[in-house]
TrEMBL record:
It comes from the Bacteria. It comes from Pseudonocardia thermophila. The keyword Iron applies. SUPFAM superfamilies: Cytochrome P450. The keyword Hydrolase does not apply. This is Cytochrome P450. PROSITE patterns: CYTOCHROME_P450. The lineage of its organism: Bacteria, Bacillati, Actinomycetota, Actinomycetes, Pseudonocardiales. InterPro entries: Cyt_P450, Cyt_P450_B, Cyt_P450_CS, Cyt_P450_sf. One of its GO terms (molecular function) is iron ion binding.
Amino acid sequence: MTIASAPPHSDVDLFSDEVLLDPYPVYARLREMGAAVRLDALDRVWALTRYDHIRAADGDWQTFSSDASVGLNEVINARLVGSILGSDPPWHDKLRAVLMAQLSPRSIRRITDYVEEAADRLVDSLVERGRFDAVPDLATVLPLTVVFDLIGLPESGRGNMIRWADAMFTIFGPLNDRTRAGVQIIPEMYEWLGTLQAEDLRPGSMGRSIFDVAGEQGFDHHQCVKLLATYVTAGMDTTINAISNAVALFAEHPDQWDAVRADPGLIPSAFNEVLRYESPVLAFARRVTRDVVIDGVEVPGGDQVVLLFGSGNRDERHYPDPDRFDVRRNPVDHLSFGYGIHTCAGQALARIEGHAILRALSERIRRFHTGEPKRHLNNVVRGLESLPVEIET
């Protein structure tokens, strides 16, 4: 019988500006304290800090439930009831089956040529300019274009989509100023999506497919809108942040960029390492359905845990020398897309876009010279707001 010990606890606010600007030293201290650390700044909330325990929890939905529990505030958890993110099987599986019919690796491979051509055109235009901002001019353009084309959305929403997607993630944090601002923004997105009917979406598109199967699946219009929102967020912020983080990292580590340019076969490994080293999604919450002992510490049923993907990806127990950026590492088991039934639905699309951008850049750009980056603060996703770049071709 395992004897639970007194729990380690910390008064750190994981969602403060200071921590979000540089979370990794804080994560390292929490890992040293234990695999499960009680967070005094939040009510009945624990941080899961180490790779093995995060992955195990993410794979055990019966014990670590998403049902109205993925946010660290009850406002958003109440709104997520019945959504794919805020539900468990069997309802979750029914919703996910509809999404994955269009987002499975086999389905996404059909658009590889389209994404590659779009990446080439984008990078060619930036090379002609010689200098650009890696966030709005590069990282944002391809995912936004792909999402609108694949989902078949009308152009009237394009100008707001980045702001809406950013708000969709930040509302999963505790009820701080960022969450409150996001909660005010999200109704705009649902109001716009709620005006769309099947005929407003391009025939054959991912978005149209939701309406096509709505009747046979028993979905009403409101549920179709929720699934459309999932399509949008699944393909946006994580990819945008991964691409801009990649440019920043290769500017900082030119030897690693030289390795990718010399061997394009390293591109999948390099993209995995970018995702591990700078997790585009730092954390998601779950609710514990029963008393559970984690590494000798008892977490009571009813409490929430924060799965710190950004900490697990830097866990020295799993990745040797984890603070070293190494494109040959190929961490295919990184946590940035999650694990288990809630693994990121859009990860196949994110990989195709990320690989296409890295290939196009590596064929045309010898060196990145970056100015002062500006970090974008979001409760859940980690990325940049601005990164001035000058290139050598």
